[in-house]
């Protein structure tokens, strides 16, 4: 349906209607004390834009950020809150926010006031004039500074930037930026190819674009966070590695399966350690050692998968226990399949190592698929 046709079908209530030109998506997790100030600043700097909207995408923050946003939105219809329950993830939050608007220009900005919102009108102007498909707020462009960052954080950020640039061939001074604006057509052309994992949506967009995007960078100084805590942790680094893997293999190897397998390998080490302790050190019967080791290793795998592999759907409270039960059950059946396949192959004179590996592979795939469907179901 064209805009013209839509007007005929749904005549505007009040004439003349000013079409929404810009949507600013703000991802939040525990930003209650920042969001009000950000919305105020956004409104102030966007006075020149005839019609804009702001979509705050909140992942059910325990500090009730969503309720705070809705309270503000009561007097400001251009502010909306998209609250996601049982989900986590900065990139996916931004993607879903951008999918929830009809605006032709889409921006993403952090809620913690670290990005310089006064850049937005200039970003919009560049898109309006058709000088770029995507405008990035860059921390490393010549005049950009990062005050308040310790050396470690700076080096880490530098390293990730270099790695991203090298591996994916992206030529941009700050491909890790979380502050950018792009045209809807550019977003729609790429949205189905995005990994949507972790923090680095911009990089994801840049490397997934079917045709190279015309990119402009605007420098700004990254402000220190005054209130609340950063959500960047080791898991974010894992997410980053997974996204790179996803992009480099063209999505061939599911990122979650890789993590699941790595966790499984770590579980094997745990298993052997417990077995060694119970059987060799304590001198208990082998069966007791093997049983204890299996239970401990399964629980270890479950806990680690819950924190890492399925971090975005992490189970908590009594659902954690419930998930543990399903996991142990699924992996128990997986172990049977493993032994069954290995025994069958071995009986058919397949070399023992090959039989064993085939059994392990079948068990691993079974465990992955079944737990994905029944333990960490969406
Ligand atoms: N909805 C949602 N879900 N929002 C999230 C989540 C999540 O799981 N995790 C973080 N956020 C929100 C935060 O509330 C904040 O508004 C924004 O995303 C950035 O998170 P920070 O925790 O402040 O990250 P940072 O400052 O270390 O890094 C950010 O800024 C860098 C510089 O622009 C990120 O945006 C990086 O991607 C970016 O490179
Ligand atoms: Mn921040």
TrEMBL record:
It comes from Benzoatithermus flavus. Residues 23-189 form the Glycosyltransferase 2-like domain. Residues 260-376 form the GtrA/DPMS transmembrane domain. Belongs to the glycosyltransferase 2 family. The keyword Transmembrane helix applies. Pfam families: Glycos_transf_2, GtrA_DPMS_TM. Keywords: Glycosyltransferase, Membrane, Transferase, Transmembrane, Transmembrane helix. The chain crosses the membrane at residues 257-279, 324-346, 352-376. This is Glycosyltransferase family 2 protein. The keyword Transmembrane applies. It is found in: Membrane. InterPro entries: DPM1-like (IPR039528), Glyco_trans_2-like (IPR001173), GtrA_DPMS_TM (IPR007267), Nucleotide-diphossugar_trans (IPR029044). It is a multi-pass membrane protein.
């Amino acid at each position: 349906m064209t805009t013209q046709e839509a007007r005929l079908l749904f005549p505007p209530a009040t004439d003349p209607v000013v079409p929404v030109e810009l949507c600013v998506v703000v991802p939040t997790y525990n930003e209650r004390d920042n969001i009000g100030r950000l919305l105020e600043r956004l409104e102030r700097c966007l006075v020149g834009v005839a019609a804009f909207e702001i979509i705050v995408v909140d992942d059910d923050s325990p500090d009730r950020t969503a309720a705070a946003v809705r309270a503000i939105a009561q007097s400001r219809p251009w502010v909306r809150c998209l609250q996601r329950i049982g989900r986590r993830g900065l990139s996916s939050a931004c993607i879903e926010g951008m999918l929830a608007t009809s605006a032709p220009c889409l921006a993403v900005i952090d809620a913690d006031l670290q990005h310089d919102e006064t850049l937005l009108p200039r970003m919009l102007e560049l898109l309006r004039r058709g000088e770029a498909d995507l405008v990035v707020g860059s921390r490393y462009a010549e005049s950009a500074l990062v005050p308040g960052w310790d050396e470690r954080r700076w080096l880490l950020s530098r390293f990730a930037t270099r790695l991203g640039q090298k591996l994916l061939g992206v030529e941009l001074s700050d491909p890790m930026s979380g502050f950018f604006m792009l045209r809807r057509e550019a977003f729609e052309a790429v949205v189905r190819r995005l990994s949507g994992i972790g923090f680095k949506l911009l990089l994801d967009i840049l490397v997934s674009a079917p045709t190279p995007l015309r990119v402009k960078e605007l420098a700004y100084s990254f402000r220190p966070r005054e209130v609340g805590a950063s959500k960047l942790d080791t898991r974010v680094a894992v997410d980053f590695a997974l996204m790179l893997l996803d992009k480099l293999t063209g999505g061939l190897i599911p990122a979650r399966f890789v993590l699941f397998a790595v966790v499984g390998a770590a579980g094997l080490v745990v298993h052997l350690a417990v077995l060694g302790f119970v059987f060799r050190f304590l001198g208990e019967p082998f069966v007791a050692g093997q049983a204890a080791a299996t239970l401990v290793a399964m629980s270890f795998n479950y806990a680690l998968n819950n924190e890492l592999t399925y971090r975005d759907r992490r189970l908590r409270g009594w659902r954690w226990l419930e998930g543990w039960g399903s996991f142990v059950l699924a992996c128990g059946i997986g172990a049977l399949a493993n032994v069954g396949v290995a025994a069958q192959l071995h009986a058919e004179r397949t070399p023992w190592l090959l039989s064993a590996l085939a059994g392990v592979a079948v068990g691993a795939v079974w465990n992955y698929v079944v737990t994905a469907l029944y333990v960490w179901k969406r």
